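Researcher: Here's the sequence for the chain we discussed earlier.
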Amino acid sequence: MTQGGTKPHTTGEQRQPRVVIAGAGMTGILTAITLRQAGIRDLLILEKRSSVGGTWRENRYPGVACDVPSHFYSYSFAPNPDWQRRFASGEEIQAYFERVFHTYGLGTVTRFNQQLVHSEYRRGRWHLKTDCGHTYQADFFVCATGILHHPCYPNIPGLDSFEGACFHTARWPQSAPVDGTRVGVIGTGSTACQLIPALADRSQHISVFQRTPQWIMRLSNPGFGPTTRLALRRLPPLQRLVRWSHQLLLSHLFSKAVIGRKVPHWIISTLCKLNLRFSVRDPVLRRKLTPDYTVGCKRLIINSEFYRAVQRDTVSLETAAIRKVVPKGVVTDDGKLHRLDTLILATGFRPFEFMRPMVVIGEGGVTIEQQWRHKVQAYRSLLIPGFPNLFLMLGPNTPIGNFSVIAMSEVQVNYLLQLIQQWQQRRFDAVSARTSAMEAFNQSLKAGMKGTVWLGGCQSWYLDKDGDPAMWPFSWQRWVDEMAAPQMDHLRLHRYGNG
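Model: Thanks. This is the structure I predict for it:
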C-alpha cells in the first residue's frame, strides 16, 4: 500500500484500486483474503491493537465461547476439521483466526498498533490518518471495525468508589482477583451466563445482580473426539454436510422464529420454557428467572450450565435493583449491603457506535455524526449516502440474531467486490447509496418489523434510541437473494475524470 499519490494504478484498461481496511477482526481478515483472491493486491489492513481477532481478542473472560456451532462459525473457504467442541471456546476461535491470517499471508499487508482517527473523502479518494500520525490514501475504504468492541458501562452512583477490583468483561485483567473471593456480577446476559458457571468453583461466593431475566435454550456442547476429527479431515464432503446442517437449523428454526414464523417460534419458546421448568427446582428461584417478555425479544441465550450454577449454595441471585456502589460492595434497593472483593460488569456493548470515535467526513464536509444525528442508517446495511466508496461492514440491520456473522460478512464482501470490479472496469469513479434508496430500504424494514419478536415487550441492545430494532426482519434466504447483486439504480455513480 503506497502513501500519497493522486491517481489510481492502471493495468491496461482495468484499474487496480487501493483499498484500506479498518480492523483485523473476522470481517477484516475475510475482506482482505477475498479481495486478494480476486486479484486486488494494493490493499492495507490497519489494526488498532497488536494482534488480530477483534472481539475474540478483546473478550478473554473465563468461559467465553461462541453460541453458533463451530463448523458454521468459520470461513466457507477455510473449514476447520479440528474444532474441539460443537460450540468453540473463545481461545480456540482466536487461534483459528490467527491461523487463517498467517496461512493467507496477511501479515505483509497489515499495520498493527495503528488506530484510524480521521478519514476524509475528497474527489474520489479517502484520506486517512492514524493515531501515530501516519497518513494513507485509498480508492476504497472498508470499515470492518465490528459492533461489539465498545463496552457499555452502567451508570450506577458510586461505581468509581469501589475499593476492590472493578472491570468490564471485555477488559478482563490477566490476573483477575476471582479465586477465593467474594465476586459480584452485574448482568445476566450471554456473557454472564458463560462467566458465572466458570467462576462457580473458583470464587468463595458470587452475587449475581439481575435486572432482567433471560430466556435460555439448552443445547449440549459435546466434544469431537480424535476419530470424528480424523473423519472430518479426510472426508471434506462430510465436513460440508455438518456445516450445511448447522446453517439449515439456524436459518429455518432460529432465524424464522425471531421474525414471527409461528411454528419455529413455538418450538423455540417451548424448549426454553421446558428448560427453565425442569432445570430449576426451587419455585421461588424459578419465578425470579422467568422473563415477562416474548422468547427471542432479547438475544436468545444458548447455555447448558447457568441454571445449574445459579442454584449452587455459593451463588445468590439478587433481583432488587442496585441503588449504589459503595467502597465495600453494592447496596440494593432493599437496603442490603452485599460485601464484595471484586465487581465484574457483564453489561455488554454499545452496538450503534460502529467506527466511532473515528472522525469520518464525506462529501461536502458532512461528518458521520451529522449524517446520523437523527438515526443510524445505511442502505443494505453497507452503504451510506454522501460517503462514496465507503463500505460499513455489519452495519445497521444486518441479520445478526442467533446466526453466524461470518456467513453475513461473506455475503457483504461478495456485494462490495462486485462494485469494486465495476470501478475497475471504469463504469464509475465512486459509488454511494441514493438517499431515496436508503429511505425506501429502511421503510421496508420498518414495515417488516411488525410481526417480529423484537417488539415483544423488552428492552434490548437490538433497539435503537427510537425503539426500532436494528435487525433484519425477513428470512436469511431473502438477505442472500437481495445482496446477490447491486441494484445500480439505487446507487449514485460519480465520475471525476481522473482515471
